[in-house]
Amino acid sequence: MPMLDESLQKEVAALLDQMVDPVEILFYPKAGDAASDAMDELLHDLAGLNSKVAVKRQDGPAPLVAPDADDEITSSVSVFMSNGKPTGVRYLGFPGGREFGTFLQDMVGISTRVAPELSPETVRFIENLEEPLHLQVFVTPT
Amino acid sequence: MVADMVDAGSFDRLSNRYRVSGVPMTVVNGKAQVTGAVPEAHLMRTVRQALGA
After folding, report:
1. Neighbouring C-alpha atoms within 13 Å toward the C-beta of A64
2. What would the pLDDT profile of B24-40 be if each residue is shown by its tens digit?
3. Which of A64, A70, A132, B27 is most buried, judged by most C-beta within 10 A?
């Protein structure tokens, strides 16, 4: 049974129609985790709604990004790729509730290469960044 | 640069490490954090603090 009901499928398909370039998601499941199983189903549904969404299920664990520890990766990791390269954007866990919209917007944004609305100062700062930067935004489904 | 959205409920160990009590909460390099949907300038102050810039 699909994760998305028929009406939601139509809404999501309309949103994904805005995609231009293909987006590939490397999916690193977590065995025995219910949220990981749900994410697996959700990604399968999304790939079925638009041919520009490709999901590649990975066998091993997701590459760690400092300072995360191995035992802190308690659910699935989805890595957004574009043109075969990591975009730097990842989703850890399952995007429930309102976060689903954010997840889809991220995917469409990557596909359409929409420039983020940042000040020139911030853009300059990021362009000149020489050390690793890891931003983690914690959210809960609402 | 890596930007993660983290489902706090599924990543309880990670959430506990940073004592996530409100969302959204942004953690930078595990060193500095800010709670709430703060303006860009505020977030960038946190980023600079984490990088020692």
Report:
1. 10
2. 999 999 999 999 999 99
3. B27
Q: Which domain holds residue A28?
A: 6-127
Q: What is the ipTM of this complex?
A: 0.97
Picking from B26, B30, B40, the nearest residue to A67 by CB comes out as B30
Could you give the number of structural domains in chain A?
1
Rounded CA gap, A119 and A123, in Å? 6
Tokens 């640069």 -> residue: B1
> What pTM was estimated for this model as a whole?
0.95
CATH of the domain at A29: 3.40.30.10
Q: CB of A9 within 8 Å of any CB in chain B?
A: no
Using the Cβ of B22 and the Cβ atoms of chain A, whether some distance falls under 8 Å is answered with no
Residue A64 covered by a domain: yes
